[in-house]
Amino acid sequence: MQWEVVIGLETHTQLQTQSKIFSGASTRFGAGPNTQACPVDLALPGVLPVLNRAAVEHAIRFGLSIGAKIAPVSIFARKNYFYPDLPKGYQISQYEIPVVLGGSLEILVGEEVKVIELTRAHLEEDAGKSVHEEGFIGPHGEASSGIDLNRAGTPLLEIVTEPVMRSAAEAVAYAKTLHSLVVWLGVCDGNMQEGSFRCDANVSVRPMGQKEFGTRCEIKNLNSFRFLEEAIQYEIRRQIELIEDGGTVVQETRLYDPDRGETRSMRSKEDANDYRYFPDPDLLPVVIDDAWIAAVRETMPALPAQLRQQWQSEFGLSLYDAQLLTQDRDTAKLFEALLAMVGKPLAKAAANLIAGEFASSLNRAGMSASASPLQAAQLAPLLQRVADGTISNKIAKDIFAIMWDEALSGNAMSTVDQIIEAKGLKQISDSGALETIIDSVLAANQKSVEEFRSGKEKAFNALVGQIMKASQGKANPGQVNELLRKKLS
Amino acid sequence: MSWHKTPITLLAKALEAKQVSSTELTQYFLDRIAAGKVFNAYLDVNPELSLAQAAHADALRAAGKAGKLTGIPIAHKDVFVTRGWKSTAASKMLENYQSPFDATVVANLGMPNEANSHGAGMVCLGKTNMDEFAMGSSNENSAYGPVLNPWNTDYVAGGSSGGSAAAVAAGLAPIATGTDTGGSIRQPAAFCGLTGIKPSYGRVSRYGMIAYASSLDQAGPMGKSAEDCALLLSAMSSHDPRDSTSLADSGEDYSRYLNQPWREGNSNSAKPLEGLRIGMPKEFFAEGLSAEVAQSVQAAAKLLEGLGAQIIEVSLPKTKLSIPVYYVLAPAEASSNLSRFDGVRYGYRANAYRDLNDMYKKSRTEGFGSEVKRRILIGTYVLSHGYYDAYYLQAQKIRRIIAADFQTAFQHCDVILGPVAPDVAWRLGDKSKDPLQMYLEDIYTLSANLAGLPAMSAPCGFNSKSLPIGMQLIGNYFSEGKLLQVAHQYQQASDWHLRQAGEVA
Fold first, then answer.
1. How high is the ipTM of this complex?
2. Which of A58, A175, B102, B277 has a 20 to 30 A CA-CA distance from B480?
3. What is the model's pTM?
4. A84 and A123: one domain?
């Protein structure tokens, strides 16, 4: 039987704010246990939450970026359950009326563009962390676990899709696109190791053509794109095999074990808590008027999709290049800065440089664009020297490599012109000098000359190659072509 | 000098005139507290700390930096967290709990310092007994024993702010703070012959008030007169950025109308309340109200009429429903508010347990008293899947209707007058066995909390057993100043509030 896979994702993105969503404690990662938990985070008797405006603004920013409706009034509710790392015994979260409603995200799966509809995005607070290590002693001398409440109260935006993805690849493409968008917006730092961006995947299968959804399982807490893909793939296989063997899928929450590459049942629907949601009486409804939305819009950067479209049509960039240039804001900023220095006629060359040498150098170094040792001001002369004929593209690549290595090693950095000067890389455009080189190459390659004369066009290219080599890459390729044609005719 | 019979307005004058120092005054009350332990009004007293604050207050006065209230002693209900004194909410769950910070109310009234430059400079005498987590109407639900009524120690002091009421009535404090979720200031004030006011919801910060039912809780003063209460309320209330439900413009002088005629420009000093329309809800005088209380309140109405007010009948048709509505909503919020008492981070943890769930179960079973557990159970039930709509949502709808009924009534009158409670204080133990019977005692006070309206209690007589009777005044939103004005005018023409409980010690 043919099976159709149905996937919906819930993504917890940690919002980049100075302080927590309901308290003034810092959100910085990595501090000593419980050093960033104030009385509100500890849920001491008498404390009250106060909503952090910056968290709401991030939610608005995200909502606007996906064309969603920003709820004019949204409500915080209490989700009640007991857990040691949940200090109040309830989590403050938006339930019935979230701040962001609907919206959609365009993703690229292979060459195909697909639109992923979103259901909602709501604000909530994170819980703390249980530390299960030896050495924690309770008040009566009993062996205990430790609780670190630094993370308690960290603002989260939970972004929920409709069940519209049909493969693990689509789910990963969506997660990657969402990740780059929230980082682009400055809403989230995107650090997946630190848990700033984690996905829950709802997976079900149904016979191809069937309208009703199959029973779904939710795989919790996938904090890498690889785990997301592996977990979904495993879960799809598990469900199909289960059904084909005559079994039925049970609605449950599962955990992915990356070491064993499988998902395991965590709790069934029957064990699910009754969270007894009700509006939090300590917090007022969040009222967002048009003026606030407009003010937030003012602070938003141009969106990657807008830039892609603009650059493709204005500069004739390929979808691939445009995609690469907008993969993160630093790359896009570098392109824009470079463009401002070299001018629009060199846009394509600038794009090629960034998508080519620059991107692969970053890759090799395992760096993101934000950490790049080279800035636009250093790269611009490289494009200009190619444009004005001082150097060839080939030489430009060599110079880039020299500059990159210097910058990376922290040595005093030479400018493009200094390198050209010091290494004698100036393009040879003097026809007298070129003719001398050509003549000696022709003399040494009589066989190729004869082959060309007998009609083998390939031999011409071989000769050009030899000439370039003899000139150490400095010969002006256009001129070499021209002069060689003349000589051979 | 009988400082314990002196209203704080006069204590302020005595301090200003250097007739007495704050240290002397504080010692005077500490001595009375030590002698008056029989009432069980206080849960924690720390003479050293109190006297240090008094010395601070005296120094402020010597430096010319004293405000109106500087150096006047005050008792705080144990529901407010305090640095220095334990904060237990009268629960075993928080036995010995020490808060690292002061409640905003405590800070507003307390010593000024760098972090709290506007502190009024009052001296904390200690923390007063209460019903555990403010759940109760008799102060018999305290884990540390009931409070006895200073008018007759066989009787309850009322609740939940029973310790504050008894402390002031017995002269163990000149004035005290209380909180009122369903009548917890007004009813013990009435039972102990005091004046107390629950302001409009949002007037007084809830930060540092151990939460019972967040949408209903409101703090207020309990004192000897409307004038004293006005003075204290002005210092208690403030906009607090740490409380999202705190009103933006809370700081006002609630004393400003006290000595003014109701109608501006009325120069007839015999009829200062001319133009005032007082509504008496017929539902407040129906079956269930004791004849003696009814008589006293009617007599008060007559007196007010004599002062120029016009008495009219109004209707609050959903009065009876305020009991079920309150006993759905308050427990619902309480069940969630009290979840933090789980034995994990602070407070009581059971001695022996098998695993995490067992730890939760035993700690909460052993740490909470039976009324608290009852309300947690009710609250958990009404919020549960499948019952939420039928109970919680339905109660919220009726709550809105109750609030709307008040607005209808306020189209016809300026202030509502009625009894505080169906009867005077009852004998200790009389209603403890039947929680429902106890809940019915709240019938006249609950609706003001449900609507968020200001309401106050003022003494208006005694019954045949010489127990105090209180009348209740309910005003429209933010009309505290006008309510206190009516009560003050009444107190200018009566002496119920000046009567003192007999000395026991």
1. 0.96
2. B102
3. 0.90
4. yes
